[in-house]
Write a structure and sequence with these properties.
By secondary structure, the chain is of the alpha/beta class. 37% of the residues lie in helices and 15% in strands. It contains 11 helices and 10 strands. A hairpin with a 3-residue loop joins strand 8 and strand 9.
Amino acid sequence: MANKHIFSGAEVDWDARDPEFIRRQLPLWWLLATLYFRAEVKGFERVPDGPVLFVGNHSGGALTPDTIVFMLAHNTYFSVERPLHALAHNMVTSLPGLGPFVKKLGVITAAQKNAHEALERGANVLVYPGGDVEVFRPWTKRHTIDFDGRKGFLRLAHEANVPIVPVVSDGGHDTFIVLTDGKKIARRMGMEKLGRVKTLPIALGAPGGLIIGDWLGHIPFPVKIRTEVLEPIDLRARYGDELDQDHAYDLVTSRMQAGLTELASKRTMGPWR
């Protein structure tokens, strides 16, 4: 019998993304991102024409400020007419109120078939292979890429014959302080079978100080977020029809680790600079 999860709803309403709604939201969200996170995004000139699979490192807990900054920058640089769909856990897309809002922005439930269809429709797709493992990694590992060995994104890009465009972001994990990812507790509670999550983080953040689970989000600290789009990787050109997933995984993660380390080195005076 297949595992039953608390949240469901992998089907996508492709008409839910609302370009006019996104266009109206851009000025306000950019004002907030500029004032609060001093957002800095570069490298979009490296993105080739046609659909691509953006692969990012994930930080900052449930609010994922790196995602907000990247989607804002993408919609500004390419305009809202070049669709971008970000994959998210179904607990995000299924929640009343939040689900319909993020779907208007182009967020879809994370599933291989959904990502395939988005790429077939000519849209760019943003995926975070590390999922909750990376977004809730301990603060001491904030400058470390951690995809938890997940390689589905490689198969997706190879089968769809689209380039992988790595995206690295630094600063999001300074918006709150994860003390422990709580993997052992989550495993004992059977949370992966119930809700497809491997973590039960314990963190320090606003407004309550101690945060357990971060299910309702938190108020992020106002730190600077830097994001860079790296050179694309064409798996078909490199590996042909037979994808070497282990080698490709090492290639993507090593390039991203180098990029993230370089971004982190620019913080000469702590997370606020």
